[in-house]
Amino acid sequence: MTDWRRAATLSRTFLATAMGACLAVGCGAVPGGSGGPGDTLTVMTFAPEGTKATNMPGMTAMAKAYERWVNSKGGINGRKLRVLTCNEHNTPAGAADCARKAISEKAIAVVGSYSQHGRAFMAPLEAEGIPFIGGYGVSSEEFQSTLSYPVNGGQPVLLAGAGHQLGRACGQVSIVRPDTLAGDSMPVLLNAGLKANKAPEASDIRAAEDTADFSSQAREALADTAGASAKDKEKEKGCVTAVLGERTETFFDAFRRAAAEKQRKPQISSVLGSVSQALVNRTGGKESPFEGAYLTSWYPVSNDPLWDPMRKVISEHSFGDDGVDPDDSGAQTTWIAYTVLGEVVKRFKDDEDITARKVARMLNQSEKIQTGGLTPDLSWRYQDMRAVAGFPRIVNGQVTFQIVQSGRLVTQPGEDSMDMTPTLEQAPRAA
Questions:
Q1: pLDDT tens per residue across span 361-372
Q2: How far apart are CA 43 and CA 348, in angstroms?
Q3: Rounded to two decimals, what is the model's pTM?
Q4: HSE (CB half, 13 Å, CA atoms) of 322?
Q5: Mind giving me the DSSP string for 347-414?
Q6: C-alpha distances out from residue 250 to 215, 217, 254, Å
Q7: Strand locations in 78-141, DSSP E?
Q8: Whose CA is closest to 229, among 307, 164, 172?
Q9: How many CB atoms lie within 10 A of CB 254?
């Protein structure tokens, strides 16, 4: 055998041996790529933090607590979970950056995240086939993209539910909302619920998203509801609802002062996410200015025993992180979204490769997924889609009606949870 043939044979033998060793130990494995038990699944959760507008640190904190909990049990079907978090900064650029990070880290899904900049983050995810599971529901793209798998009805059902709630009690309603693209759909959705109860349309009052002075909006809202009247005596009072995220407290502080000057006390209202149990506690509990406020939510009240598994995970695995509040709707949404992820992963065979596109395909084809009673069973098959203009991927239109009573958010007496999908199907296109 010539020298060059001998060298070539030895080279091929060495290469084959090296490749076999790499296959055995996973050399060069792509982060987030996965095969059988023992492999790692990479996912991402993003949300805005440290901004002048809405901040949702509880979502990323809940995601990390879930990661620690599930890995303490050996992962999901033997696969370790790797959770990446990203600050979305409440900007289109920030949302796009988080999506690109998910792509570069080979994430198989983005789970339980918050952003109103749907166009910025959904396009990159769609290009790579990465599913968006259980977003908070503030951008219309979450209910339009075929790679979005919402676990609740987002702002649409909360606002339609608020319209239902207020339409039964108010002669006139004013809505104070951010002057943003996401905010533009809010009056249309609220009016859908009002119309279903034969109530007049709400006055639309806009505010700059990052403003700290709501005095003019407070005066306008008070003036708009001053002349509320109706043949039905129960609907004589005027009502004001505000959906401003963290700025909701600032608005109602200005509104309370304006109302006191006029010696008036209109009914106030909001949605979970803009008002929370933590906010009521912080502003005085039983003496809070939110006492008596109407609220709508996607989920059972926070003291419902259905939340006990989540509370246990938070108490045992969120050590050193005080950003997780079990009463926070962002943390609750993230918990449900990761519950969905866990159930989907369990439906793969033990030795099956799991990729982003395969996760999306499983979500598109799977039978209903249970969330421990926190939502109706969820499924995103074609036959599960609803005819809601602008929001075709709403598969869960459930809303619960709550009231602040003795400093606690409790179920509103006489109001059972309700599916707002039929109401939304009658509404004009809002996005």
A1: 999 998 899 999
A2: 17
A3: 0.85
A4: 1
A5: TS-TT----HHHHHHHHHHPPPB--TTSSS-B--SGGG----TT-TT----EEEEEEEETTEEEEPTT
A6: 10, 11, 7
A7: 80-87, 109-111, 132-133
A8: 172
A9: 18
